[in-house]
Amino acid sequence: MIINRLLWFTLLFFLNSAAVNAQQVIVKDATISKMVDDVSATNLENLVRKLVSFNTRHTLSDTSSKKTGIGAARTWIKSEFEKYGKLGGGRLQVSYDAFTQKADGKRIITPSVLKNVVAVLPGTDPSDKRILLVCGHYDSRVTDVMNVKDFAPGANDDASGVAGVLEMARVMSKGHFRSTIMFVAMVGEEQGLYGAANLAKRAKEEGWNVHLVMNNDMIGNSYGMETDIKNNTMVRVFSEGVPAAETKEEATMRQSIGAENDGMARQASRYIKEVGERYVDNLTVKLVYRRDRFLRGEIIHPFLCKDLLL
């Protein structure tokens, strides 16, 4: 009798253990895993070092030199996108989003021609009009925001983000996706988010269906200025709760059902956490339920502005 009970409990133990182990199995899509594996740390470092080599990428710096200044930097970024396009079968559409920025009396002293660098990977489903926009800013600065000559490497702010965008374009341009993916190196972030504002305005005027804007800023920082704690296994994802263009009726509905945490940005951030941690080993995605860091301005803001809102 005792033996039978022992066998019974042993059997239950193994059955329960099997059930627990089965629940812990993480199913991964082979295509996504392959893309993640294709990301190269060496490539990312080389991209950052190349961007640093332009001495300064100040928005108003030299545009005629082939070696230094914002002009040389954007020419090189465009050539990198074009190289990736050829490797990916020629589907990546690379261009400048050029515009003349008026003087603002603050950080733009004379009318200046600025250029975002854009690479578009068209979606494969004609019925899917969504655009997923991934960006980082390629301009840099020293403490004096109007100093256009001194060495401004901007390795973390934001060569790291642009390197991430370029590497994503290299890897993903070989694939086929239902929705259109737009990779953008933005200009003028440090002078007042001008590159992002122009692209957001263009998107509104041309009726783009921008489904998601993912901005990569200072993604290579392993030391935080506020805490001085080294952590190279965590990334923060910021997301707004209440939409900037919320109508009075929408606000009433949100308040009545308590939906402050259920907007599209919050849902997207939770999905990014789930998928990011599933496919990248030793990664922790920390969700920060704010549009951005306190009193900071980022590329994402013009896309949330009521006047430019998509």
What is this structure's SSE topology?
Layout: H1 2-23, H2 30-38, H3 41-52, H4 69-87, E1 93-101, E2 112-121, E3 130-137, H5 155-172, E4 180-186, H6 189-192, H7 194-206, E5 209-215, E6 234-238, H8 248-257, H9 264-279, E7 284-288
Parallel strand pairs: 3-4, 3-5, 6-7
Antiparallel strand pairs: 1-2, 2-4
Helix pairs in contact: 3-5, 4-5
Write structural notes for this entry.
This protein has 310 residues and is α/β, with parallel strands linked by helices. Residues 1-11 have low confidence and may be disordered. It has helices at residues 2-23, 30-38, 41-52, 69-87, 155-172, 189-192, 194-206, 248-257, 264-279; strands at 93-101, 112-121, 130-137, 180-186, 209-215, 234-238, 284-288.
Short synopsis of the structure:
By secondary structure, the protein is α/β, with parallel strands linked by helices.
Order of helices and strands: HHHHEEEHEHHEEHHE
Number-wise, the strands total 7
Overall average residue pLDDT: 86
The backbone outline, from C-alpha atoms, is globular
Helix content: 25-40%
Tally the helices: 9
Residue runs with pLDDT of under 50 for 5 or more positions: 1-11
Distance between the termini: 73 Å
Which percent band covers the strand fraction?
A: 15-25%
Q: What's the story with the biggest beta sheet?
A: 5 strands, mixed
Radius of gyration: 23 Å
* Protein structure class: alpha/beta
Strand order within the widest sheet? 1-2-4-3-5
Brief descriptors of the model:
single chain; 5-stranded mixed beta sheet; two-stranded parallel ribbon; 9 helices; 40% helix
